[in-house]
Amino acid sequence: MWLSRPQWSRRVVFLGGSIAVGIVAVGFAIAANLANDILHRMLARWWWLPFVLAPAGFAAISYASQRWFAGAQGSGIPQTIAALRHRDADFRGRLLSIRVAAAKIAMTLVGLLCGGSIGREGPTVQIGAAMMYALARVSAFPHESMRRGLILAGGAAGVAAAFNAPLAGVVFAIEEMSRSFSQRTSGIVVAAVVFAGLVSLVILGNYAYFGHTSATVDFTSGSAAVVLCGIAGGLLGGTFSRIVVAASAGFGGRIGAFRYAHPQRYAACCGLLLALIGFASHGTIYGTGYVETRSIVAGAGVIPQTFGVLKLVATAVSYASGIPGGIFSPSLAVGAGVGQNVALLVPHAPQAAVVILGMVAYFSGVVQAPITAFVIVIEMTRDPDMALPLMATSLLAYGLSRLICPHPVYKALSKAFTPAD
Predict the structure, then answer these.
(1) Rounded to an integer, what distance in angstroms lies between the CA atom of residue 159 and that of residue 197?
(2) CATH number of the domain at 7-204, please?
(3) Model confidence over 5-33: pLDDT tens digits?
């Protein structure tokens, strides 16, 4: 019955869990920004610091994740997808434990302090899913669809609170994590997004992630920008996905053998390579890329034209090292760099508009979720006038990316966490 005590007990527990996910997501965001600020303050005094921090930090994180926190490495979205696909409680418990979620937060923050080109949004999905899945042990959720809905709801709430983008949270749950949507779970997901989003609104205010923009493009210059950004973003995004999937599989050959035999040395080598890339980029590739992306969108002109390519390589190296950290924010930063490059080829189009098209193109090329891509960029820039160009660019990039990487990157990466049949 709708008014039965067990039903209301579950609703109260669910409400508390959704609010808790919002609080943790917002706290994680604040801590990540602080870690990024601390790193750049240290870089201003000691330019050579990443050559020490990155190798040592990556090796230490690699050891901790393999020794004590298996399942915490990488993005967190593949783990959540794997947990959704398998009903085994022990398997889900290993990937979505509160212990792993807490370690994910700590190690991601350490990775950012060491200069990793990583994001917090993917980890927030796993953290939110783990917190909501833990509710199944607190209150009786009798149906598998309800337990699955809790996992979906936690991941969606994490995205919504992390980006202050509620629509993106719902769409991401449908398009990327579940690839389907049932009537039984739809209300759970939407409710979790609403409550987590309200927490973000109360704490951080009603803000646009990358600031408000009012950029628009006309048909002539816009068509050229759409095509160029779609091609560049799709091809580069597909290439990045292929690299990340290969890294998750161990690469093979001598690199794979070295990684298997000496995982900490391998992680340290990745850290050293990252420091070299950081030196070449004048320190712009470290961290989530949030500050650099806002600067490019605003047309500040302080970010070098090589930023997009170097950020792409730095993110691939960081992910290949095996440390916890996502690719959401770094992908948007790479896309902004791609848009900045394309803007030179279409000088009659507003640079901010081309940059936004580059963001949606590369992001769609990486995750191969075109609807999520343009919804999340619209919400983060609050620029609805760009809706149609963003849709067209996202779809073009998606199609080209599939030619290079036939399977969506998160789906492919989830296989590494899936038990053999």
Answers:
(1) 9
(2) 1.10.3080.10
(3) 556 566 677 777 788 888 898 899 899 99
